[in-house]
Amino acid sequence: LGRHKDDHRQSGFTYNGVEFSQNNLNIFAGLCAVDVPEHVEQMMQALEDNGEVCTRMGAYKPRTNPYSFQGHGKGCLPWVFEKAGKHGIKVIAMEITHESHIEEIDNCLEKLGRPTGVMLQIGTRNTQNFELLKAIGRQKTYPALLKRGFGITLNESLNAAEYLASEGNANVIFCLRGMKTEAGQPHRNMVDFAHVPAVKRLTRMPVCVDPSHSVGSRDRSPDGILDVMHATAQGVIAGANMVLVDFHPKPEKALVDGPQALLMKELPAYLEDI
Ligand code: PEP
Question: Which residues form the DAHP synthetase I/KDSA domain (predicted)?
């Protein structure tokens, strides 16, 4: 990924017809967690209406509390993938938390005739789960989206990305999602999007920002602009190549992270602003 002294290859790759590079921008608006078919349908319809071909959909959720909703897992994959195909979604960013999930996703897509594509997301809690990284690195069917570890150095997170490439999969996007701070206020995490150009300088990975998990709320500045929008703007102005952002038709009914989800009616203005 550009971290080896003899590696001078260009950045970027194309997956399922969508180009990812250090020179373009893809938006992945979607549900933090898949809940009911109606919400997935509404989300994908809104994306189609706005000409978007990528989304985020969490089926396997890594939760801090074992009693919180853990995601529908493989049970929801068939209908999520079918709906994606119906609405022209080409790439779904989907977090996996265990190696076996790769096979579950692959089997399901194969059975359905591959109506859509999947980008395997590695969450911040698994940035240094080296066995998971190696498993994702060993397969070359799906690209990877690696979240920065929220409590480790940037260098450690970049080395984690290299685990994917060293096993053979260099189709990797690096995602900034904020860092843990002691106070946890006013945002859930300290927004770290000033690091976008640094990561682009240090590696040849396209860089994603996740304003939703950085900010963690629908708070607004005194001028009425959502903090999530301000953070998105910071990331995009800094040169981000991908935006991963939570939307939900009914945030009050969302099973994970509802308070940070933007409303469906805010999608056109959000896209326009970017
Ligand atoms: C997510 O994107 O759904 C998520 C859990 O993010 P993170 O790993 O950054 O907390």
Answer: 23-270
